Structure formats: structure tokens, C-alpha cells
Structure to design on (238 residues):
């Protein structure tokens, strides 16, 4: 698979929706995470990321303007021991609870499907990072309707064992803006991951469409120690 420029990919796309990037830093020492949300409606744009334990959750920027919290208020990132879960919806909790009962990532997601937001049927995208004794692997998943048919759910899981340094993968909910919004297609895209978390986060944030971007979370986890550093970017500032 040919590596693409994530900066160019995002800059050329006004609405990829929500996106997950996971990979390994160029020096091979850190596991990297990027998760962003965007919005076209006032309800979707009325959000911020806030810290929640070792993870994050979405929160209404102005609670008085919140219309429907069902698909926009959730915990995108949760940590279960040496596993970090990243998703675009409340399937984070499904994965967390089931993996805590010794189910696998893939088994956990069999309980879920795409979002019930006709006519878009937004895909549920998820990732799991596993760090143990200096080793790192990750998997990504997308649950999507069968070409807009809500009667059928297509499930794809991609596992990356011992990922090469400086490489990661990117998946988003949509291919681009549209009505209805077209779901992401194909494998997660191969992208570069730098050593510096600030550089990585700033690149992602500046590449997202200024009108539609809402929030971004980045985290780098030391593969040897499990210690991490994180940063949140919110367009809405309190």
C-alpha cells in the first residue's frame, strides 16, 4: 500500500466526518493516537472534548443549545489496563465492557452496527491499541451499511501486529461531503507518524476544514513504560 500525505488528504476534504489515526512514532518508541470530530449542524458543532479519567468524553459547549445528545455525546477514548480504545460513538463502552469480560475486540463489535441516522447510516469506526512488555499492536474496525442499505451491515476488521516505526493508518466515517454522506471505502490509509506529538496534533488540526472542525485529541504512549502525554484541541473555547 502506498503511503499518502495525511495533511494533503485532510486539507483537500471539507468533510471526512470523524476520523481515527493510530500508528507508531518514527523513532519506534511511542504508540500514537489521533481522533477528530467535525460537524455540519449547529448541534454537532456545539461540542468540546474534556478529560474523563484516563480517557476523554464529548460535552456540550453550550448546554442550553443541545438538541439531541444521542449520537454526539459519548466517550471516544477509554483505557482498560494496557489497552486503549478509540471510537466515534458509544461502542467505546461496548468494547470496554466486553473486553473486560475476556471477549475480543471483534467479538465485542458484533453487538453493534452503523448509526441509525438515515439516510447517512454513519459508519461506526473503532480502534484498539495493545501495549505489553515493550510490544505494540493495534486493530481498526469499520461497521457500515451495505451501500446505503440499512438491512445489511458490513463488518471489517484490520489488525496490525508489530507495526513499523513511522507508520500508521487512518480511517474516517465519510469519503467526503455529500447528501447523503458517502461512507468510507476500502482499507485504512497508510500514513506517516512523526516523533513529536505537538507536531502531529498541529498538523491534523490545521489540516481540518476551518468551518467544520470541532475537536481533536492526540495521545502518544511510551511503548516501554505505558506512560502517555495527551493534548486536546477545541474550536469552542470556554
Amino acid at each position: 500500500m502506498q503511503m499518502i500525505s495525511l495533511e494533503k488528504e485532510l486539507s483537500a476534504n471539507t468533510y471526512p466526518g470523524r476520523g481515527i489515526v493510530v500508528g507508531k512514532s518514527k523513532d519506534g518508541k511511542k504508540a500514537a493516537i489521533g481522533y477528530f470530530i467535525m460537524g455540519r449542524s449547529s448541534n454537532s458543532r456545539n461540542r468540546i472534548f474534556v478529560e474523563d479519567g484516563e480517557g476523554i468524553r464529548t460535552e456540550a459547549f453550550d448546554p442550553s443549545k443541545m438538541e439531541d445528545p444521542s449520537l454526539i455525546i459519548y466517550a471516544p477514548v477509554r483505557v482498560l489496563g494496557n489497552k486503549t480504545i478509540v471510537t466515534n460513538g458509544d461502542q467505546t463502552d461496548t468494547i470496554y465492557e466486553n473486553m473486560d469480560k475476556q471477549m475480543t475486540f471483534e467479538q465485542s463489535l458484533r453487538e453493534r452496527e452503523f448509526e441509525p441516522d438515515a439516510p447517512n447510516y454513519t459508519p461506526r469506526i473503532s480502534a484498539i491499541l495493545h501495549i505489553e512488555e515493550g510490544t505494540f499492536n493495534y486493530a481498526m474496525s469499520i461497521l457500515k451499511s451495505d451501500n446505503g442499505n440499512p438491512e445489511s451491515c458490513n463488518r471489517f476488521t484490520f489488525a496490525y501486529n508489530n507495526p513499523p516505526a513511522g507508520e500508521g493508518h487512518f480511517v474516517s466515517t465519510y469519503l467526503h461531503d455529500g447528501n447523503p454522506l458517502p461512507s468510507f471505502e476500502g482499507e485504512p490509509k497508510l500514513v506517516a507518524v512523526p516523533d513529536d506529538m505537538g507536531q502531529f496534533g498541529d498538523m491534523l488540526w490545521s489540516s481540518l476544514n476551518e468551518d467544520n472542525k470541532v475537536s481533536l485529541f492526540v495521545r502518544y504512549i511510551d511503548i516501554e513504560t505505558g506512560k502517555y502525554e495527551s493534548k486536546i484541541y477545541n474550536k469552542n473555547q470556554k
Q: What stands out?
A: The chain is about 15% helix and 40% strand. The CA atoms of residues 55 and 78 lie 5 Å apart.
